[in-house]
Amino acid sequence: MRRPLIAGNWKLNLGPGAAAALAVFLRDALAGRDDADVVVFPTALSIPAVAAVLDGSGLGVGVQEIAAVASGAMTGANSAVMAREAGCTWMLAGHSERRQYFAETDAGVGAKAKAGLAAGLYPIVCIGETLEERRAGRVDEVTQRQLAAALAPLSPAELALVTIAYEPVWAIGTGETATPEQAQEVHAALRGWLHAHYPAIADTVRVLYGGSVKPSNAASLLGQPDIDGALVGGASLMVGDFVGIIDGAR
Ligand code: PEP
C-alpha cells in the first residue's frame, strides 16, 4: 500500500510574510491528521519563513528548483545543499514550466534529481505531454522518454527515494483536468514501464497526478489504483481547497 502524498506548488506566489501566514493556517488545519504525506513548495525566498512555521508539524517543505551543482558561479540559481540547510526535505525537478520557460532538458532533470538526492532531498520528478503530443498519440512515448532520462543517473538506493508526478501540460493551470480514466491509463502505463525497467521500485514508487486538481475532482482521481497522490498548483494557495484535496486522499 502506497501512502498518499499531496504536494502544493506555490510557484512564484507569496513572499515570506504571506507564505508564513498560509503555512500557519495549513499547519493548524492539519494538526492531528495523519492520512497523507503533505509538502509545500514556496518560492525560494519564502522557504526559511515557511520552514520555521512548519518545523515539527510533520508537514514537509520543498524547493521548486535547484541547480545540478551545490555551489559556484551560477548567478541566480538555488543549491540543493543550501535548500536542505534552509529546512527543505523535498525538491521538484522537471516541472513543465521549467521545461517551457527555462529550457530545462530531460538530461538536466536527471542531473538535478541526482544533486538533490546527494544533498538529502527527496525529488519529485515531473513529466507530461503537451496537447499536441497527446493528439498525435505520443503520450506514452513522451512520458516514458522523460522518465527514462530522469532516472538514468540514479543508483538503486537513490531510485527508491524518488516520487514521480504525471502532469499533462494541457491540464496545468488551465482548469482542464484529465478524467480519472485518462489519468489512470497513463499512470498504469508508467507503472508497467517501471516494472519492465526498474522492477525493484515498481510497486513502491509513488506516482502523483497534477493538473487542475481541486476538491471537486480529487477523490475520483485519487481513487484510481495507480494514482498515489497529487501535485497541486493553484488550489494549494487556498487552505480550504488544499485541505479539501487532502480529504480526497482518505
Ligand atoms: C502544477 O503547477 O504542478 C499544477 C498542477 O498546477 P495547477 O494545479 O494549477 O494546474
Commentary on this structure:
With 250 residues, the protein is of the alpha/beta class. Helix 1 runs parallel beside helix 2 and helix 9 packs across helix 10. The protein is built from eleven helices and eight strands. The protein is globular. The model has no long low-confidence stretch (mean pLDDT 96). The protein starts with a strand and ends with a helix. The protein has an eight-stranded parallel barrel with strand order 1-2-3-4-5-6-7-8, surrounded by six helices. The chain has a single domain, classed as Aldolase class I (TIM Barrel, Alpha-Beta Barrel), CATH 3.20.20. The site of phosphoenolpyruvate has 13 residues, from strand 8.
List keywords for this structure.
250 residues, alpha/beta, TIM Barrel, eight-stranded parallel barrel, 11 helices, globular, binds phosphoenolpyruvate
